[in-house]
Amino acid sequence: MIFLIGLLGCAGPKPNIVMGRLPNHSWHGPIGEASYSAAGLVTVDLGSHTQLTTTTCFKDAKTRIGIASNDARVAAEEDGTEVVAIEGALEIEDCSPQHLKATMWARFANGGRVEASINKYLKEANSP
Known about the structure:
Blueprint (H helix, E strand, L loop, with lengths): L1 H8 L7 E6 L2 E6 L3 E3 L5 E4 L4 E5 L6 E5 L6 E7 L2 E4 L2 E9 L3 E9 L5 E9 L1 E2 L4
Parallel strand pairs: 3-12
Antiparallel strand pairs: 1-2, 1-11, 3-4, 4-5, 5-7, 6-9, 7-8, 9-10, 10-11
């Protein structure tokens, strides 16, 4: 029974919840706004000046997150600079220009980590 409770506690965040940790602070809360641009760019506010950006948007998609990825990245603004995750994964259950359902995790070189379960309607991003 204790083993089962331990497994349930490690199941990751609940829907539309993000958990993050950077060297100076940690946070746990709701996913912020999410948008889809005409160019096919999806952005999701992960709280605490952290954002997921991806061009991958189709059903059952899996992509890596990181500095070398052209498809998906997670960046955090820390001490006035942008820190980009060095590794991670984005697993999309469903995605359209109107809605994103996905899970993700990312790790930063400074030991920080963020993970989220996303189920958001996407707003149309403003055009430049």
